[in-house]
Amino acid sequence: MAFTNWRGVVGCIKPNLHAGSTEDLIRLLPDGVGLIPLFLDLPHERGEARLAAARTGYEEKIKVLAARKVDLILPDGTALFMLPGVDGERDMIRRWEKRYETPIVTSGMSLIGAMAAMEFKKVIGIRPYTWTHGADFTLRYLAGAGFDMLCVVSPEGYDYRDVQNIPSVAVYRTAKKAFLAHPEADGICILASIMRTGDMIQTIEDDLGLPVVSALTARCWQIQKHLRIRSPLAGYGRLLRELP
User: Fold this and answer.
1) What is the mean pLDDT of the chain?
2) Are 213 and 175 spatial neighbours (Cβ–Cβ below 8 Å)?
3) Which of these, 160, 157, 158, 240, lies nearest to 198 by C-alpha position?
4) HSE-up of 97 (CA within 13 Å, CB side)?
5) Residues near 59 by Cβ (< 8 Å), separated by ≥ 6?
6) What is the mean pLDDT of residues 227-236?
7) Selecting from 3.40.50.12500, 2.120.10.30, 1.10.760.10, 3.40.50.720, what CATH number does the domain 8-106+225-234 have?
8) pLDDT tens for residues 13-33?
């Protein structure tokens, strides 16, 4: 078999032992891009116990991937990286990049970059569920990056135990309801790639007339941007079709 990673190799760190989002990313990546996924098993309970485990766990995995000389490391997850805000997150990432001599881009940083590339200004945010202060730190993080966050909403009736079972039609209904409440929006941001929405992004864009950036498509866009690849993909929204 021919060498399959001729365009580059990316390391991805997932916070929990879930299938789904990694498979989705692999399906979207162009030929010649290799992916090395590593998984943490963080406690579901929110609070300092989870954050402490995350601080140790992510750095251990970054060290492993850097030793393998990957071209880019993508830590997934929100709490550890979004809670400190944009500046706090970037300080942490800069320290790790200097220590391990490897480019690192978090899922939040990929979202911010993709939203800026799509010229989002007034944004509707959708996340899988809300815990105490959950929407607040997401709002602070994205607002700190310069976006006017009109709202951050979740499909009704779900919590962290249901996250992989949230149907994409529920995300569609949530997006439409938020858009009707905020018709001034010029973009929709879907946080958390574990909420599988790839099959609905194009439909949301077609029906509402707004571009959609999701955690999944932003990560695929980020990989292509970093590896200097241009391989447009139709059916997943303007971001991957146009690759701005």
Assistant:
1) 90
2) no
3) 240
4) 15
5) 96
6) 97
7) 3.40.50.12500
8) 998 887 778 999 999 999 999
